[in-house]
Design brief:
This protein has about 70 residues and is mainly α. The chain has two helices and no strands.
Length: about 70
C-alpha cells in the first residue's frame, strides 16, 4: 500500500503539483495562419469600405426618398 504524505508541502507533493501544471492544454496557431486571417479580414473590410464609398450616395437618396434617412 503506498504511503500518503501528511505534510502538503513535502517534496513529493510539490513535484506532483508542478508536474500537473506543466501539461499543455492548447496549441498555438501558426503565425502564417494568423497573417492569412488578418489579410483576409483586411481585404473584406477594404471591399466593404469601397462599396460604401461608391454606393453611399445612392443608398442615402433611397433612404431619404422612403423617409428612413433620419433613422441613421
Amino acid at each position: 500500500m503506498p504511503r500518503k504524505d501528511r505534510n502538503p508541502l513535502s517534496i513529493s507533493s510539490v513535484r506532483r503539483y508542478h508536474g500537473a501544471m506543466d501539461a499543455q492544454t492548447h496549441r498555438r496557431l501558426p503565425p502564417l495562419l494568423i497573417t492569412a486571417l488578418a489579410g483576409a479580414g483586411l481585404l473584406l473590410s477594404l471591399a466593404a469600405f469601397l462599396g460604401w464609398i461608391v454606393q453611399g450616395p445612392e443608398m442615402f437618396l433611397t433612404m431619404a426618398e422612403s423617409g428612413l434617412s433620419w433613422c441613421l
